[in-house]
Predict the structure of M55 family metallopeptidase.
Amino acid sequence: MRIYISADMEGITGLVDADDVQPAGRDYERGRLMMAEDVNAAVRGALAAGATDIVVNDAHGPMRNLLPEALHPAVRLVRGKPKQMGMLEGLTPAHHAMIGVGYHSRAGVLGVLSHSFMGHEIEDMWLDGRPVGEIGLAHATAAAIGVPLVALTGDDTACDEATAWDDSVTTVAVKYARDRFAARLRPVDEAREAIEKAVTTALSAHAVRAESTPPSGPRAPRELTVRWQSASVAATLQGIPGVTATDSRTVRAEGRLPSLYRLFGVWMRVAASLTNQPPYC
């Protein structure tokens, strides 16, 4: 059984502030070790369920947060950037299931370190008219590749967002949001044990379901709409074929996933070149 893990950082056990998750932050070095241990808990759970190959993609910020020497020896790590598929780099139809570790809720939700991909530069996003963030877009893209998201960890708002997209996803809340930079934390050992057990249970249940699930047919085109903080970003993106504006700060495009996901990655690189906005401000 081949398992893919996409590891973000804002939803990691114990982390609540930008100083915990940004390289310049005073608690970042501690945060990256906490991130590794949440990933390791998911890896142990996957191995207990029979995983024979585990790829972990460092999906947060600079994508160089996970220290290879801090990870379980079974992990094959994808690290660094740029990556054409960003948070889903390395995910292929050969994987049997995907796990999201350390995810967070979308922009506009009062969750711990909530945002959508680019701090406050992205004000909102919609997939086929439905509000979406990193969780929903990852879920939809993985499904289009043919890989189900079976388990996700993060704060309670991230877990709620995941189950709203797909109530078959097993979630583990490692903290409970009190505000955007405050949470009630689960004890560390308890949270890691919960991650490990949940991943084992989710993968075991998925293996049973997969035996009776017919393969899906061709995927229909999807519409992705993004409202930016900067009108300059929206204006520049209209130079990309297929991108149209709905107002001075909002652009949209149609396409099939995962190609549409790759296109969105280009949008973010354009936005990063035009702005210098720190996240979480």
Summary: The chain has two domains: 2-122+133-210, 222-274. The longest strand covers residues 170-179. The chain has a mean pLDDT of 94. The two ends are 41 Å apart (CA to CA).
